[in-house]
Structures are given as structure tokens and as C-alpha cells.
Amino acid sequence: MATTWILVANASQAKLYANTGPKKGLALVKELLHPESREKAADLVTDRPGHMQSAGNGHGARQPRTDPKTNEARHFAQELARELTHGRTSGQAGRFILVAPPAFMGLINEKLDGPTAGLVSDRFEKDYTKSSEKELASHLESCIFL
User: For residue 87, what is the domain's CATH number?
Assistant: First the structure.
């Protein structure tokens, strides 16, 4: 039976668990933290918006296309997607279950490559990052055999 990796994440932290088969439970593989996602938006921007020349006498100010917190969440989603891809390509995992709040789930899904996304069997749009392993196992019992 292929190892299933369960990614439990939000924009600032993630835990990666493995389940190797029936009655094997969950084993913590890795914990990842992204403290930048908890920063205030003003602390993530190093400078005021740049100025650009505009027609006429006025000056315009250019705002970033995305707010800094969303940008940091995207960076973390990319990091998590790389972890999952590495698990697939190295043969450490053959199936994935993703657990994340809806907005962050969308960012993770954006960043997954096709072959890795194809191995995602279940998605739960919840924030279970504060759940114990026992609570998490209870939430996931419908898709893994503990």
C-alpha cells in the first residue's frame, strides 16, 4: 500500500503527516512555519508606493497588485507544493490529502503541478492546524484507514 501524506495547513503553519496503511495511525513527517504570514501588512512593505510620471502636472502612485499578506501566503503555498512534489518524485508518497481553509486551499491548488495534483484524493476546507493527531485522525477517518 502506498504511503499517504496528509498536509494540514493554513497561511502561516503546516504539518505533514504520513499514513502507511490500516491501523498504522499518523506519523508527523515535517512541520513548516511561515511567520511572515502573521506580520502586519505595513511591516511587510519596505517602502511607500513608487511614483510614476503621468500625463499633465500630477503625479501618480503605483500600488502593489496584491496585498503583502496574500503575497506571503502565495510564497508559503509554493513552498508546500514543492514539498508535496518532492514526496511524489522521491517515492515517499503515492497519495495526498489536503486540509486547509478555503482561501489557502485555493492557493495550494494553484501551485501544485499536474502529476502531484492528480494524486490528491481528498480535500477538506477546514483549519485543523491546532488539532491533535487523535482529533485529526477522527476528522479524516472517512478517507484513511487508521
Answer: 3.30.420.60
Q: Do 64 and 44 meet the contact criterion of CB atoms below 8 Å apart? A: no
* H or E element, residue 107: helix 102-111
What is the SS3 assignment for 33-99? ECHHHHCCHHHHCCCCCEEEECCCCCEEEECCCCCHHHHHHHHHHHHHHHHHHHHHHCCCCCEEEEE
Question: Which pTM value belongs to this model?
Answer: 0.79
Work out the number of other CB atoms within 10 angstroms of the CB of residue 91: 9
Say yes or no to pLDDT of 22 above 60: yes
Asked which of 58-62, 112-116, 137-141 is least confident by mean pLDDT, the reply is 58-62
Per-residue pLDDT tens over the stretch 119-144: 999 999 999 999 999 899 888 888 87
> Are the beta carbons of 142 and 2 closer than 8 angstroms?
no
Domain that holds residue 94: 4-41+64-140
- Whether 69 is in a domain gets the answer yes
